[in-house]
Amino acid sequence: MPLVLIRDTHPRPRAKIRAALRATHHAIAAALEVPPGSVWLRYEPGKPDHYWEGETGESEGKPVLVFVTLARGRPERKVRPLFGAISSAIAGAFALDPMNVWVRIDEVSPERVGQGASSYAELRKRR
């Protein structure tokens, strides 16, 4: 179920965006040991004028903000590796320092996330 929103702070070439999406998709599927078809990503391009950092508002490293939503229930040892996997994948595609990739992981109750008219708790019971 991982649902991933990548919000950039700067514009990037299409080829690099596609490479980042591909690399991030594979990294998440591998780290969580889930089928690739269960990982969903969305990229939102950024505009420097719409981003402010620190005291002056100047962005030194053209950061990328990544928000991951997971259905709750995985042990920490499964979730923790996502930070490195995601930051390395995006940094590699965009030629950034991995420290310029900010990652937030939110876990939600399987009853509070779903597909169509069914929650993930219901979908899991059908499997």
In short:
By secondary structure, this protein is an alpha/beta fold. It has helices at residues 14-32, 76-79, 82-94, 120-126, and strands at residues 3-8, 40-44, 64-71, 101-108, 114-115, 118-119. The strands form 2 sheets. A 4-stranded mixed sheet has the order 2-1-3-4, covered by helices on one side. Strands 5-6 form a two-stranded antiparallel sheet.
Helix coverage percent: 25-40%
Strand content: 15-25%
Number of helices: 4
User: What is the H-and-E element order?
Assistant: EHEEHHEEEH
The CATH topology assignment is Macrophage Migration Inhibitory Factor
CATH architecture: 2-Layer Sandwich
Q: Name the structural class.
A: alpha/beta
> Mind describing the biggest β-sheet?
4 strands, mixed
Look at the structure and give the CATH class: Alpha Beta
The largest sheet has its strands arranged as: 2-1-3-4
The radius of gyration is 16 Å
CATH superfamily: Macrophage Migration Inhibitory Factor
Overall body shape: elongated
Average of per-residue pLDDT values:
94
Number of domains: 1
First and last CA, distance: 14 Å
Spans where pLDDT lies below 50 across 5 or more residues: none
Give the number of DSSP strands: 6
